[in-house]
Amino acid sequence: MSAGRRVVVIGGGLAGIAAALDCADSGAHVTLVEVRPRLGGAAYSFEREGMQIDNGQHVFMRCCAAYRALLARIGSGPRVFLQPRLRVPVLSPGRPAAVLRRGILPAPLHMLGSLARYRHLRPRERLRAVRAAIALSRLDLGEQALDGLTFAQWLAARGQGPDAVEALWDVIVRPTLNAPADDASLALGAFVFHTALLAKADAGDIGFHQAALSETVGQPAERALASAGVEVRLGWRAEALQTTSAGITVRGASEELGGDVAILAVPHARAAALLSGLLPDVALKLAALESSPIVNLHVVYDRVVCEEPFAAGVRTPVQYLVDRTAVGGVPVGCQYLAVSLSGATREMQMSVETLRKTYLPALCELLPRARDANVERFMVTREHAATFRAAPGTAALRPAARTSVPGLFLAGAWTDTGWPATLEGAVRSGHEAAGAALEQLELQPVAAAPAVTAFASAALPGAGA
User: Fold this and answer.
1) Distance between CA atoms of 124 and 139, rounded to whole angstroms?
2) Do 166 and 194 reside in the same domain of the chain?
3) Helix H segments across 64-159?
4) Together in a domain, 188 and 332
5) For the chain, which residues score pLDDT lower than 50?
6) pLDDT given at position 4
7) Is residue 456 part of a domain?
8) Contact assessment for residue 238 and residue 251, using Cβ atoms and an 8 Å cutoff
9) Taking every pair of C-alpha atoms in the chain, what is the biggest distance, in angstroms?
10) For labelling, which of 43, 61, 192, 464 has a CA lying 20 to 30 Å from the CA of 178?
11) Angle at which helices 65-73 and 423-441 pack, to 10 degrees?
């Protein structure tokens, strides 16, 4: 390791992990501090009532190359699954299921067949949806004016009414932006569709975590960081940042850590507090960025009620459900379904009992077998500030990795990566911050990224697997 090339990474989520590994691989002496007793940030799991529960149903896509490479770097390739071909079952009360899947035509024509048969829209609505998708593919993502409209406003101008938005567009927008099209920035919505569905045919194939998140991210990352020579300090809270003649000092409760550079990789509200003295303008923008919540419902039935490994819901309160039976630790014969609710401002205010009374009947409407099944467990987890709020005007509030303070760099899905608040955006931000830090330290970044070929591509395990 190089003397005089000390890096302090503040935050042990995906951004901090990626940044720390990059810096260590390039020869810097790296110390990573994390206030929690674990790594992984928002991607973690815990045990409750004998079950392994993920805090959220995090998925990724084939286009998420940086996240997939990080998983390979920490040895978690075998713990995830990537669809060989995009397939999204879509359920609606009282109607046969529909499936959004990609065909054999090249992008952007690969979804035309699926849209033409999409039974949750009337034939005339399907034609208008195709026209809107073509118009969407022609948008210039670099146009700043896109961030001044909601995605729903743009869709409405192209014949997409509220029902079409709910039945089709929100199936993609809500889980990727943690907001419905009514609230989401057109710039971010257009980015998602361009990147995941329009630019390359296989980009939207969905990836799933087949093990608990802590076993996929946090624990393997801790081993990888140790192997790379990174000093990891868990339960260490950063209370202030100060500039010195030697670089940046990070002050904790009982000690200080000095670095030639520091990479701040904590949630944006926490970053705003730490930056208020050094970068008040950036802190004010981060405070204005706001947050969007996610609520997850964990339902254990005494039998298999859903054959699909995951499904979307339309015209129902159920947004997405995922079969987590294989990793949840439930009794043999039972099925554990996790219901993910993005942009869940209303649900955050509901009691557990109200959520139960609302969502168990809704699940029965979608899954006929659930009507005769017993609910063995019903649990709720809430992430109050799961992501930044992806509203119009967001782009102007997201800072770059480089700051005006020498030696201080920023990382996190909330930085200006161009991506929404996703696993991929977090990892990319860590790479960007590390690249800028290594440039200041006059260290060469490691050029070759880990391969991402070790991902399973067989059929996704079904219910009860």
Assistant:
1) 23
2) yes
3) 65-73, 112-116, 123-137, 151-156
4) no
5) 1-2, 448-465
6) 65
7) no
8) yes
9) 70
10) 464
11) 70
81: closest CA among 307, 324, 420? 324
Counted domains in the chain: 3
Q: Cβ neighbours of residue 272 under 8 Å, at least 6 residues apart?
A: 282, 283, 284, 286, 287
Find, among 34, 25, 29, 80, the residue nearest to 58 by Cα. Answer: 80
Residue 373 in 3-state DSSP?
coil
Amino acid at 245: S
Question: Based on the domain organization, do 436 and 300 belong to the same domain?
Answer: no
How far CA 314 is from CA of 91, 115, 133, in Å, comes to: 6, 15, 19
For helices 423-441 and 14-25, give the axis angle rounded to 10 degrees: 30
Indicate the length of the chain as a whole number: 465
Q: Which domain holds residue 423?
A: 6-43+212-290+391-441
pLDDT at 3: 53
- CATH number of the domain within which 221 lies: 3.50.50.60
Cis peptide before 108 (omega within 30 of 0): yes
Q: How many other C-beta atoms are found inside a 10 Å radius of the C-beta of residue 280?
A: 11
Residues of 393-415 as b/e, b for ≥16 C-beta within 10 angstroms? Answer: ebeebbbebbbeeebbbbbbbbb
Q: Give the span between the Cα atoms of 253 and 240, in whole angstroms.
A: 10
CB 34 within 8 A of CB 11: yes
